[in-house]
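Researcher: Go.
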Amino acid sequence: MSDIPQPSFDAPAFVRNLSERPGVYQMYAADGALLYVGKASNLRKRVSSYFQKTGLGPKTEALVARIAEIQVTITGSDTEALLLEQNLIKSQHPPFNILLRDDKSYPYIFLSQGETFPRLGFHRGAKRAKGRYFGPFPGASAVRDSLNLMQKVFRVRQCEDSFFRNRSRPCLQYQIQRCSGPCVGLVNEEEYADSVRRTVLFLEGKSTVVQTELADEMERSAERLDFERAAVLRDQIRHLQAVRERQSIESGDGTLDVIAAAAGPGLRAGAIRPRWTHSWQPELFPALQARRERSRGARCFRAPVLPRCARRSGHTARDTAWR
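Model: Structure:
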């Protein structure tokens, strides 16, 4: 006989009350230890598959025999469920998540260290290179989208070291304003290090800090009448705002609206969405606000198009506009 205690868990009753939305489920033992973390596009179908009478593998049977409680978190999409699952696995290390514990199959963003001009790049596999790894990401497309955005905003190089060391003139990425050209000395070390610092802040989820710094720098450039630099910073701010508008995963700051919440035996579920308010903030741009106030009384009028009857009677657009 097995010495493993058989916990009393009413699986049919629990499954009947589950949602069919995507989310993450956590399975606990009788002593409160986390056994397994999983994701599902349909929570009811996925969790019910663990309690079939036939067709279960040895690992699944051993897991089900220890389940005393299941907790569920509903997410807004399959991607959010994947990211939440990976964060829980990395922080909790459940014993039955043996295939995903090392996260080697998921892509990361790699930032090299120990170089004058560090490099950003795509990484998948063992983490042998010296540097920082940001992730995991749900797929390669998510990493490439992030790298593409950071090229536009921060202009940190993403070329290989062999390509970087053998350049005698800037490459196409510099010409299309996606790299600052450190390979041929078009940017100094301090400016490049500041771009790398902001890149790290962005990857750590501190885009609000980066956006505030860019806004302050844009204001200073406008006061110096350096409008070309101010326009570049304005475009960078717009890229960051577009990213924040698309975010729907949990954030460390901001105002949150709880749309729905439920609690019950073995159930903890909720749906939370960040509420970002994008509006004109005159305190961030005093010079632009002053110019806006000065031009508030100015209006441009377009002469109306005359109807055919007015054209025949000899009226002009000027007469009609000022009557």
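Model: The chain has 13 helices and eight strands.
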